[in-house]
Amino acid sequence: MKILVGVKEVGDPAIPVHVGSAGETLEYATEAGVINPFDEIALEEAILLKERKLASEVVAIAVGPEAWQGTLRTALALGADRAVLVPVEKPANPVTVARALANYARSSNCNLILLGRQGVDMDHGVTAAMTAGILGWPQATCVSQIAWQDGCALVTREVEGGQERLKLPLPAVISCDLGLNTPRHVSLPNIMKTRSKAIEHCPLEADPSPPAWQIIGYLAPPQRPLGQRVSSVDALFDHLVRAGVL
Fold first, then answer.
1. Does the pLDDT of residue 37 top 90, yes or no?
2. Which of the four pLDDT bands, split at 50, 70 and 90, describes residue 192?
3. Spatial distance between the Cα atoms of 209 and 196, rounded to a whole number of angstroms
């Protein structure tokens, strides 16, 4: 089984982010990016499958700018066998990413595509479903458990009010959720080893169809009004009555 894992570089979730002055971009307080946390879970699952001799190769792929090579080297240090960059000038929209993943999966004969549930920067959460739709493969999203039986994936996915269990024949697309595993920490020696490894480049195929997804701008969330202290429960009750809450 050959596994393709999509990885995305995002701003450190612990670092503040602000809307650009013209509302066209997001500005991070630092340029240092990290692997999207949900993609780390997908990569860890792929590496575990290889360690269990269920997978023959793990390929990490990113659709983004050249600056994302550092994130791909981190994926190599964590255990990916190869890293592929589909270069674009700026972070691509989910449709473009899905098409690039589908094209590479077809050309490289991948059996399984593992993705994170969503990117923590944009929270779109649609790339996995789009990729499966383009390929015509079965899919499961928000997966928190995976088992294998007779060459099929037995998955448990989180749904409203409970869980859903599905059986997916390969090839398939799965997006990974919290609880599936705990990603390992990358070691310094492994990071040093990746410096000599090459990052493969795969050009983005031209798409004659018009863009199906466009971000027209960003808006900062409205500021919440300041709270007001009250001296007693009775005073709080009076305020709530006047506000029409009670």
1. yes
2. confident
3. 39
Mark residue 180 as left, alpha or beta (left: phi above 0; alpha: psi -120 to 50; beta: remaining): alpha
Extents of the domains making up the chain: 2-207
- Residue 31's pLDDT is 61
Whole-number Å distance between alpha carbons of 124 and 58: 25
CA distance 233 to 181: 46
* pLDDT at residue 28, rounded to an integer: 61
Give the global pTM: 0.82
- Residue 126 contacts residue 101 (beta carbons within 8 Å): no
Q: What is the CATH number of domain 2-207?
A: 3.40.50.620
Distance of CA 55 to the CA centre of its chain: 21
Helical residues (DSSP H) of the chain, grouped into ranges: 37-51, 69-78, 94-108, 127-135, 188-193, 233-242
Q: Is residue 54 a contact partner of residue 77, using CB atoms and an 8 Å limit?
A: no
Altogether, the residues listed in the chain come to a count of: 246
